Amino acid sequence: MKKTFTILGFVFAVIATLLAVLPLYKFAFIPAILALIFSVIAFLKARKKNNSTQFIQLSLLLTIISLVMCTYKTVFIKNEVGDTVKLEKREEQIKEDAKEELNDLNIDDLDF
Amino acid sequence: MKNLLFNLILFLSLSFGFSQTNKAFTFGENLTFSASYKMSGILTDIAEVKMQTAKMNTKSGTLMHLKTTAATYKSFDSYFKIRDLYESYVNPKNIKPYLYHREIDEGGHYKYTKYKFNHKTRKVEGLLRQKSENFPSGFWDRKTSVRFSYNTKDLVSTIYYLRTLDIKKAPIGASDTFKIFFDNKETQCSFKLLAKETINTAIGKKECYKLAINVSGSNVLKGSNANLIWLTADENKIPVYAKFKIAVGSGELKIKSATGLKN
Predict the structure, then answer these.
(1) CA distance A109 to chain B (A)
(2) What integer pLDDT is reported at residue A108 of this predicted model?
(3) C-alpha closest to that of B181 among B99, B69, B73
(4) How large is the average pLDDT for residues B160-181?
(5) Is B250 left (phi over 0), alpha (psi -120 to 50) or beta?
(6) Quick count: other Cβ atoms within 10 Å of Cβ B214?
(7) For burial by CB atoms within 10 Å, which of A32, A43, A68, B197 has the most?
């Protein structure tokens, strides 16, 4: 049983760390909490039987790193739109082309 | 005959109302939204969506340029960059479209679409452009000519047209169907008034019309009454919040700012 909790704790800790690095870092909270629960259970069981806890400590370390990373990103990182110069240039070009096409169109129902 | 008349009156009273003169928006309106992706109850902001209106002077008169752009946030650009442009040139009074452009660039997938609406012949001249190595220009162009029904609009003009409808007269449960020209064919889209709700938004606490959107024959939006839009229950009818269900997870669109409002 201890082995199962140790493996589950490590797997979720790795998933949480990977997600915390990616832009979808908010999703890291779920595996991080699961990793924390499983690792703590495994840690308590290992201590009770006087077994080595080094591997479980690694899982806990990864979990803490991922939790700190995603909490920091959630609180301090502001959402900013990246480079849109290319899009703006295309918008201008499309607008110029549109103007020519609309001038060629015979729109007779514009009653002003 | 009596039954027919009764049904007709009933239908008219249940629908939002027919061609309205635009009293909801004017040139120079800017709406900014934040698009989020939701999975396992966690929301992550992924992109910014802007909706803008501008004046376009042509030889025939002044048209309204309706432009919608979507761009992913910086943190997502290296993983899945989105730079989308949707625009429509319409009659500012009845939102009848004349020219529609859609240029999407999503994670390297490029597609350009142009529809020219000829309301006299009821024909849409279309141009579909995709990247292809088989052509010297690097693009594969396909020209089409398709007939369209009365009152068919493009995607952008339909969203704006919805704002021109007299929703305040419609009872809860009322619905209306629109024809949208998308991907070179007409698609039926229906809107149903579900409720009147007051919600908190970035532009304040607003009383809104909660509408459900259903697109028939589309595999983009999933679920029945799972795609919702909240329009402010005032003369501007600003889309302040939207919820949509897609194949994997769901999404939300929340207003960040609104300037240049008509009323």
Answers:
(1) 9
(2) 64
(3) B99
(4) 92
(5) beta
(6) 18
(7) A32
Q: Does B116 touch chain A (CB under 8 A)?
A: yes
Amino acid occupying residue A25? Y
Instruction: Using a CB–CB cutoff of 8 Å, tell me whether B121 touches chain A.
Output: no
> Which B residues in the span 60-79 are in contact with A, Cβ-Cβ below 8 Å?
60-63, 65, 67, 69, 71-77, 79
pLDDT digits (tens, 9 = 90+) for B202-241: 999 999 999 999 887 665 555 567 899 999 999 999 999 9
Tokens coding B21: 């003169």
| Chain A nearest C-alpha distance from B158 (Å) | 19
Q: What is the pLDDT of residue B223?
A: 58
Residue A103 per-residue DSSP state: H
Cα–Cα distance, B204 to B215 (Å, whole number) = 30
State the average pLDDT over residues A16-33: 92
More confident residue, B43 or A30: A30
Give the residue carrying structure tokens 């991907």.
Answer: B183
Look up the domain containing B53 and give its range.
20-258
Tell me the nearest-neighbour CA distance from A79 into chain B, angstroms: 6
Q: Which of B72, B85, B98 sits opposite A105 (nearest CB)?
A: B98
Contact A74, B44 (CB under 8 A): no
**In this structure, is residue B15 part of a structural domain?**
no
The CATH number given to whatever domain includes residue B248 is 2.40.360
HSE-up of residue B204 (Cα within 13 Å, Cβ side)? 5
pLDDT, one tens digit per residue, over A5-15 is 999 999 999 99
Distance CA B210, CA B10 (A): 22
- Are B61 and A22 in contact (CB < 8 Å)? no
- Flag whether B213 is in a domain: yes
Q: How many domains does chain B have?
A: 1
Q: What is the pTM of this model?
A: 0.84
ipTM for the predicted complex comes to 0.77
The partner residue sitting opposite A82, judged by closest CB among B43, B74, B85, is: B74
- Over residues A34-60, the pLDDT tens digits come to 999 999 999 999 999 888 889 999 999
Closest CA to A61 of A34, A32, A41: A32
Residue in chain B nearest A104 by alpha carbon: B59
